[in-house]
Amino acid sequence: MTNVIPLADLRNQIDAIDQRVLQLINQRASLAEEVAKTKIASGEDSCFYRPDREALVLRRIKELNPGPLSNDTAARFFRELMSACLALEKPLQVAFLGPEGTFTQQAAYKHFGHAVCTEAVTTIEDIFQEVESGRCQFGVVPIENSTEGVVTPTLDRFVASPVQICGEVAIRIQHNLMANATSLNEITEVVSHRQSLAQCRKWLDKYLSGVLCTEVNSNAEAARIASSKPAVAAIAGEVAAEIYNVSILESGIEDQPDNTTRFVIIGRLTSVSTNEDKTSLLISTKNHAGALYSIIEPFAKYGISMTKIESRPSRQGLWDYLFFIDIDGHQTDKDIVTALEELKSRVTMIKVLGSYPKAIL
Question: Which residues, at least 6 apart from 265, have a Cβ–Cβ distance to it below 8 Å?
Answer without folding.
Answer: 51, 111, 138, 139, 140, 165, 166, 167, 168, 169, 356
